[in-house]
Design goal:
heterodimer, A: about 775 residues, alpha/beta, Rossmann fold, 5 domains, seven-stranded mixed sheet, seven-stranded parallel sheet, about 35% helix, globular, B: alpha+beta, Nucleotidyltransferase, domain 5, about 50% helix
Chain lengths: ~775, ~425
């Protein structure tokens, strides 16, 4: 049916010639492929492993695999940076299998960020073991493990593959049942290291401290092997995560194919306001173009809503064919069976186009795709690399199309393509010092093994905290230890994944007697996506939320067919609780401390597909959610002669500009941090900008920004003044009322003034 | 101040070691911990102090005369129970190994699961001299666990432990606690476990709504508690006794545990009587359950005896007995009688059993009596029910539809040979 596919180069040529696309291609960059660097097998590599590798046609190793083997076998903990499809799993399989073949009692624990990845890897590991002809027992251990099999896994599994959540609540609190594992644990493998960032990473850092504590109790001192995608600080992240000194393996020996990057900017449709055509619509057209060319493509969109919109659009292409499943969506919130089916379809080529959120950034094996379209900048370079890596696995040419949206950071990248290709991905930050997280895991650790009166926990001196837990009635102090003394099971009260502990279940009641669960969503997202009257889109089908039972955490939906989607607003109130640091000079004060944030969803808007017109709105009545987090804030005296409404507008515009550039400074996702302007803040009584971390207890972002207000203000001021629009646009300060040109001028004035004063203050304080 | 606010205040107290350093292993040389400050209060509440190499433990010992009455049974009836098991040859889960002393055992704990849950009370009852002796060991405080576990003697000789849900709860808890103290204690002996919860579920399935021990006491053992503190309060009461030093309520938990163990003795007597004395008059439901249990244990003769008696005494009133009796008859080669038994079952039962009975009829008619028409009739009836009986699970429905579908084609082929199906 399909003729021989065109080469990627030919497809790019066609794109350039096409009148509706060609003019929008702003830059083209080619990154040449690279040849492999090989190394011989280690001399002592067990003959059965050599045999197993031979059946896969492997007769030598990539240099990084050899380096990993030598270091790990020598007892060094390592972190290997391995891009997609570079044979990373052999970095850990080889030393692990070698240790088990040398000593049958040896054990290894593999940690994957999700259950699905562990199950995926088990299949690969099984085939390797089978080819070796040895009897090495490997099992996954998670919620799906049959009760009858559990004892066998605990007692005789050489290799146990699990996830941090299961380790946290299913293994560590029951360590007495795992004695043979913990006594003989030689290796702990942490795959996809880069995913352990933010709140989740901070939790996992503590799970690993607890794991090490239990290992020590049973007399084991395991070696860590971590593998990571390209990030700026793999060694630092691994060391903070594991509290163990690491040796970094950064030189990758795997070959890579040539990558063609196309930077695409949608055409301007409203010159005065600098508004461009919606990126989603451009992506739809580009996706359709590649679909017709027969190019297997992955489209990344940032939100669930966008994924579903794109799936809806793309399915138009296949409407005339019955049961056609060549276009599929893929995101969190689908049920596991649904996801497995999609992964399989991608691997065997039944699916030609998949639209995904960043769920697919993880190393789930979907085989080879030829092209990748990014709808906007994914928020950080590491993610961008991961998304681009989905196209052209192995040595083939790959096409990556970056489609910019009308927002500051996206346009910055269109103007500075080398920022994206410059090989300087950001740091992944974790913050095990977060007091709420620390205390939660200190409880779990106390439950697992009583602390002695002199013991430390990881790098922390915790005797004062244990005394606090005693005063809360959780621990009892005896002659030599702090003993757990309540009937609670702490691990079940603590979820590693999110700040809010419960998810909202989504129930389809279209057929009254055939209600079924179609997905779930975390509480915070549910406030804006599952409120009553919201349009929830699942696999391209639209549902309207009929009832949201907030107490029971259930959303009841029915199928509808409407031509709009919904978008909701959150209102926030801030209260300063502690002011830890403060620096004042020249009517300008910057502070850092703890705040309480009260978030209330207010209204939602109905927005028409295609035109994206606002066609209606309504209120949302849900209770407020409270968040305690860390924040930095800057307060100043209002410029003389400004009306309050002028100041409000200027601060709103400035806040938008500041927020846009934070990801470049502290290298986080835009959603990890919030910027809130207040004309008269309760705490300072003055105009104040607050920047706060989105997670309870904070994850160290605003603390970093506290020291960099001057640069941040400077960059924001430059960006706004160099923006091509007349009077402010969504790219710089947000869309303004038509005809009012003074708004943009005031924002620039305010930002420049603040940047100048902040620099001056800095010189006083740091001469 | 909210909990979060308190924690934010704590931030100032947090100190860190700059360098990555390993904490020393927790297992160090053991020093015998001192007695808790509240020792006198606990002793005056009615506990005795016992000392061993690992420290101190508290205990309470109660002796009973042989003829002590607990509900409807005397403790001394146990002797006859043991004698009855003594003559048994077949292996039964409730049958004790005569080479090991039989001990009735129950624990109380500070929680439900995990390494942070402690056992604080170990109660043992066994025959002693002319009567019986109950020994309850109480954990003086969480730091005295080694002495407490050592005193139990569970490391010493192999026992037959009679428990209620002990296989899933008490024994794993004991193993966990032993592992936590394994560097000090001699290894735990592997004991036989006789679990009366398991036995009760087999005997009284569909007859009793609740398998809580107190419910069984009332319906089967003639024992009614007065002033009992429910077991789920135990964790809070022990914690309170440790934190406040007041042992008054703790002694009520000891009384609760004592009742549990006394009831274990009489429940063992009652269960054994039902299993081994075929003449005892029990309900049709439990006699059928026992017949089914014996069949599952491959004691087919015993199974048939029980079922035959229910069928004889209760006739059509208890069709489930016919159902199980059908399998017994089939096993013994009485195919026509078996088919009749299944016919009764198919007529009076509902759901899954009805379908299986029809399946058995179809098999017997087809392969044994070679009456294909009747086999086909049973098959068609089953197929009809598979389509409309709402009680059936989807998996069962699909599996059976496939089975009966194949059977139907085969039977039609036998009845109308030569016709294309």
């Amino acid at each position: 049916m399909k003729t021989e596919n065109k080469t990627i180069a030919a497809v790019i040529e066609d794109l350039r010639k096409d009148p509706s696309f060609g003019e929008n291609i702003i830059h083209y960059r080619k990154i040449e492929g690279r040849d492999a660097t090989y190394a011989e097998f280690p001399a002592n590599l067990h003959p059965s492993i050599v045999k197993a590798l031979d059946t896969r046609g492997i007769r030598k190793l990539y240099s990084h695999q050899r380096e990993a083997f030598d270091l790990a076998a020598g007892g060094r903990s390592i972190t290997a940076v391995t891009p997609t499809a570079s044979g990373k799993s052999l970095c850990y399989h080889l030393p692990v299998l070698q240790s088990i073949l040398e000593d049958e009692a040896s054990r290894a624990l593999y940690l994957f960020p999700t259950k699905a990845l562990a199950q995926d890897q088990l299949a690969e590991l099984h085939s390797l073991i089978e080819a070796s002809g040895e009897s090495i027992l490997s099992y996954t251990f998670d919620g799906d493990t049959a009760p009858g099999l559990r004892t066998k896994v605990r007692k005789s599994g050489h290799i146990v593959l699990t996830n941090p959540d299961m380790l946290h609540s299913g293994i560590l609190p029951h360590h007495t049942k795992w004695v043979s594992l913990f006594e003989n644990l030689k290796y702990i493998i942490i795959d996809e290291l880069h995913t352990y960032k933010g709140v989740f990473g901070s939790h996992v850092a503590h799970v690993l401290r607890r794991l090490k504590r239990i290992c020590n109790y049973y007399g084991a001192d395991p070696v860590f092997i971590c593998t990571s995608a390209t990030i700026a600080n793999p060694k630092e992240l691994a060391e903070t995560l594991t509290n163990t000194e690491m040796k970094l393996i950064a030189n990758n020996g795997a070959p890579s194919g040539t990558k063609h990057f196309v930077f695409y900017n949608p055409p301007v449709i409203h010159p005065t306001f600098g508004i461009r055509r919606s990126a989603v619509l451009e992506v739809r057209d580009l996706g359709a173009f590649l679909y017709r060319e027969g190019i297997q493509t992955i489209i990344f969109a940032k939100s669930r809503v966008r994924v579903e919109m794109l799936v809806t659009y793309m399915k138009e292409l296949t409407k005339k064919k019955l049961y056609d499943e060549t276009v599929m969506g893929y995101r969190g919130g689908y049920l596991p069976s649904e996801r497995r089916k999609i992964e399989k379809g991608l691997r065997n080529g039944d699916i030609r186009t998949v639209v995904s959120t960043n769920a697919l950034e993880l190393g789930i094996d979907i085989g080879q795709l030829q092209a990748c379209i990014m709808t906007g900048y994914p928020g950080n370079i590491a993610s961008a690399f991961q998304q681009a890596g989905r196209a052209g696995r192995r040595q083939d040419d790959a096409l990556i199309i970056y489609v910019a949206q009308s927002i500051a950071l996206d346009q910055y990248i269109i103007d500075h393509p080398d920022y994206l290709l410059g090989q300087t991905p950001e740091e992944a930050l974790i913050h095990p010092d977060n007091m709420l997280i620390l205390i939660d895991h200190l409880k779990c650790a106390s439950f697992e093994l009583p602390f002695s009166l002199t013991e430390t926990y990881g790098e922390f001196e915790v005797q004062d905290l244990l005394e606090f837990l005693e005063s809360e009635g959780i621990l009892v102090r005896t002659s030599d230890k702090w003993h757990w003394m309540t009937d609670r099971f702490p691990a079940s009260e603590i979820s590693l994944r999110s700040a809010s502990q419960e998810n909202v279940v989504i129930i389809d009641k279209t057929v009254p007697k055939g209600t079924k669960v179609i997905g779930e969503m975390d509480r915070y997202s549910a406030m804006t996506l599952l409120h009553e009257e919201a349009i929830y889109i699942h696999q391209g089908t639209q549902y309207q939320v009929e009832k949201l039972d907030w107490e029971e955490k259930k959303a009841y939906v029915t199928e509808v067919d409407v031509d709009y989607f919904t978008d909701a607003n959150l209102a926030v109130e801030l209260k300063v609780m502690n002011e830890d640091k403060i620096e004042a000079a020249d009517e300008l004060v910057t502070s850092y401390g703890d705040i309480a944030v009260l978030a209330i969803p207010t209204i939602f808007k109905k927005i028409r597909f295609d035109t994206h017109d606002n066609i209606g709105s309504g209120p949302i009545s849900l209770p407020a959610e409270e968040l305690h987090t860390s924040s930095t804030w800057l307060s100043f005296d209002a410029p003389e002669g400004w009306k309050e409404s002028d100041l409000t507008d200027a601060m709103t515009g400035a806040a938008q500009a500041i927020h846009s550039f934070i990801p470049i400074f502290v290298r986080c996702d835009r959603t990890d941090i919030h910027v809130v302007p207040q004309v008269k803040a309760t705490h300072t009584g003055k105009p104040t900008f607050f920047i706060y971390d989105s997670y309870p207890g904070g994850i160290g972002l605003s603390e970093k920004l506290y020291d960099r207000w001057d640069e941040l203000l400077d960059l924001a001021a430059n960006h706004v003044s160099s923006c091509r629009c007349d009077a402010g646009c969504p790219i710089c300060i947000g869309a303004q009322e038509s005809g009012v040109k003074s708004g943009k001028r005031r924002v620039i004035g305010l930002l420049e003034e603040l940047a100048r004063k902040e620099k001056g203050k800095r010189e006083i304080h740091q001469p | 101040m909210s909990y979060e606010q308190k924690l934010m205040q704590m931030k100032k107290l947090l100190k860190k070691n700059g360098v990555v350093k390993e904490e020393a292993p927790v297992q160090s040389k053991r020093i015998v911990p001192p007695a808790p400050a509240y020792e006198n209060q606990w002793l005056s509440a009615g506990l005795e102090k016992e000392q061993n190499d690992f420290g101190i433990v508290y205990k309470r010992v109660v002796t009973y005369g042989a003829h002590h009455l607990h509900g409807s049974y005397k403790l001394s009836d146990l002797r006859q129970t043991m004698a009855q098991w003594g003559t048994e040859t077949a292996n039964h889960p409730l049958c004790p190994d005569p080479s090991k002393p039989i001990v009735f055992f129950d624990t109380e704990t500070t929680g439900l699961k995990g390494a942070g849950t402690l056992i604080f009370l170990l109660g043992f009852m066994e025959e002693a001299g002319d009567g019986f002796r109950l020994t309850q060991y109480v954990l003086p405080g969480p730091d005295h666990e080694a002495a407490f576990l050592y005193a139990s003697g569970l490391w010493d000789r192999k026992l037959s432990l009679v428990m209620y849900n002990g296989k899933s709860f008490d024994m794993p808890q004991v193993e966990t606690r032993w592992t936590m103290n394994r560097s000090h204690l001699p290894p735990l002996v592997k004991h036989d476990a006789i679990d009366l919860l398991h036995g009760s579920r087999r005997i009284w399935k569909d007859e009793l709504d609740s398998f809580k021990l107190t419910a069984i006491e009332q319906s089967q053992l003639g024992f009614y508690r007065k002033g009992d503190i429910p077991g789920h309060m135990a964790p809070i009461i022990y914690q309170d006794a440790v934190k406040s030093g007041n042992a008054e309520l703790l002694m009520k938990i000891l009384a609760h545990n004592e009742w549990d163990i006394l009831s274990l003795v009489t429940l063992y007597i009652r269960s054994t009587d039902l299993l081994l004395q075929e003449t005892l008059s029990e309900s049709a439901i439990s006699a059928t359950n026992i017949g089914k249990w014996y069949a599952d244990l491959k004691s087919f003769g015993r199974s048939r005896d029980f079922l035959e008696r229910v069928v004889a005494e209760h006739g059509l009133l208890h069709p489930l007995a016919h159902y199980h009796f059908g399998f017994a008859l089939k096993r013994d080669g009485h195919f026509e009688d078996a088919a009749k038994a299944f016919e009764v079952a198919a007529e009076h039962l509902r759901g899954r059993e009805r379908i299986i009975a029809l399946g058995e009829m179809a098999k017997l008619f087809e392969h044994r009596m070679r009456d294909f028409e009747r086999a086909l009739a049973s098959t068609e009836r089953a197929q009809l029910l598979l389509n409309k009986d709402p009680e059936l699970s989807r998996r069962f429905r699909e599996r059976m539809k496939e089975d009966f579908g194949k059977r139907e084609i085969r039977l039609l082929g036998k009845i109308f040979p030569g016709q294309a199906q």
